[in-house]
Amino acid sequence: MSTTPSHSAVASGDDQIAHSLAPRAGSLTRALKLRHLVFIGLAYMAPLAVFDMFGIVAEATSGHVPLAYVVVMIAVLFTAFSYSRMVRFFPIAGSAYTYAREAINAHLGFLVGWVATLDYLLLPMINAILSAIYMTAVIPGVPFWVWVLLTVGICTALNLVGVKLAASMNVILVGIQLVVAVVFVVLTVVNIANGANGAEFTARPFISSDVQGAAIAAGAAILALSFLGFDAVSTLAEEAEKPERDIPRAIFIIIAVAGAFFITVTYVMQTLFPDVTELADIVGASPEIAKYIGGAAFQAIFVGGYMMAVLGCGITQQMSAARLLYAMGRDGALPKRLFGTVDPRTGVPVVNVLIVALVALTALFVDLDQAASMINFGAFIAFTFVNLSVIFVFFRFLQRRTAGAWAAFVAVPAIGVVINVWLWLSLDPISMVIGGAWLALGVVYLLVQTRGLRAPAPELTGPINLSMYE
């Protein structure tokens, strides 16, 4: 059922926006405080993600990874502002799909949600690629494909037997990642202070005479992957104690903390190695730098900590993707007989877990930068439509159109639209083809399901809790 702001709620403008949505049956318990929301968002983003794309982006931007992070952070902040607007209108478990459906059009909202599902399906694949890259750096004698198969196999096996242990380990895994990252930064700073590799602290990683806008945009388009998940807290609006206040605050805090962390880490890495072509393996630059700054022992610790994070994320990502497919099957958005069933003994959507595992095995044939671009294809579309949703809310629902309202509901999100489209157009051409094909498939499916848009669009549901079946 569509939930829109009442006439009286929007008539008075931004100060009294839709705080009285009709309660839904089976409402979730409102128990999450601001600190809970912030931690969940940071845990979802995985702190060590900062090391994933450093070598590739350093080469693409000619040594300006921190600048590329600044650009993508600005883009994300504009989108975050739009999320903060939308959660005040719709303090329900939201997402880009939800906002586009409610503010623009249900059929268009379905397509936004359909494209966003590509992120869920491909994240286990990029996780397997990263696992293989890091392990190959430490044990080069083992073929790349062996690590891919092992990573996918372990994550699939644990998802089939249950993931309660992995879920309970989230806090520990995040803590380990933070400790490893802090030690990495400290060792890098010590090396720079000692003049290692002729390095010295300058502003070059942010600005220099050879900065090229197109290259920075391309790098930023890849690095958007690091920020995926900042909006995950918007799906917790029905479980937050004060969603209209705390969800926007949590989103901005998450972006600020993560952005400062990403920029700091990549600044010291880029300062130590302004030219990554000096490294033997650009794709595996981070573990190679770890060995340079701390020797083989620290490299082993670094990769060990990273692999724990990889497995933790891989299990969660595969679980989320499988549950998303299950929810779509259960609700009729996908064939129920195939996707909408769970094993009665374990409560696991076995078929969906195996489908996600097969998709993850495409890691055997895809490069890291192409994989990141494919995931960001859906992310930039989702971010674009969150910004567009704010503009539509302004013209459809808001009656008091002051100068401040024009700025908050039109000007700022319009800038967000432009930035996200700019970054989207900077993605890898192959990823645009694959993402476009997925979107086209969604259009065909929508037309069939709705008999040429004459019937309502299928409902899409995010990953749900299957504990009721266990």
Which regions contain 5 or more consecutive residues with pLDDT less than 50? 1-28, 462-470
The fraction of residues in strands falls at under 5%
Q: What's the CATH H-level homologous superfamily?
A: Amino acid/polyamine transporter I
* CATH class identity: Mainly Alpha
- Give a count of the beta strands, DSSP E runs of length 2 or more: 0
* Average of the residue pLDDT scores: 82
The CATH topology: Amino acid/polyamine transporter I
Output the number of helix runs: 17
Order of helices and strands: HHHHHHHHHHHHHHHHH
**Residues in helix, %:** 55-70%
Alpha carbon gyration radius: 22 Å
Question: Could you explain the architecture of this structure?
Answer:
- There is one protein chain.
- This protein is mainly alpha-helical.
- The protein has a single domain (40-461), classed as Up-down Bundle (Amino acid/polyamine transporter I), CATH 1.20.1740.
- Helices cover 66% and strands 0% of the residues.
- The protein has helices at residues 7-11, 34-45, 54-60, 65-89, 96-103, 106-138, 144-161, 164-168, 170-193, 213-223, 243-272, 285-330, 336-339, 350-360, 368-396, 403-425, 429-449.
- Helix 3 (54-60) runs antiparallel to helix 10 (213-223).
- The chain is globular, with a radius of gyration of 22 Å.
- Residues 1-28 and 462-470 have low confidence and may be disordered.
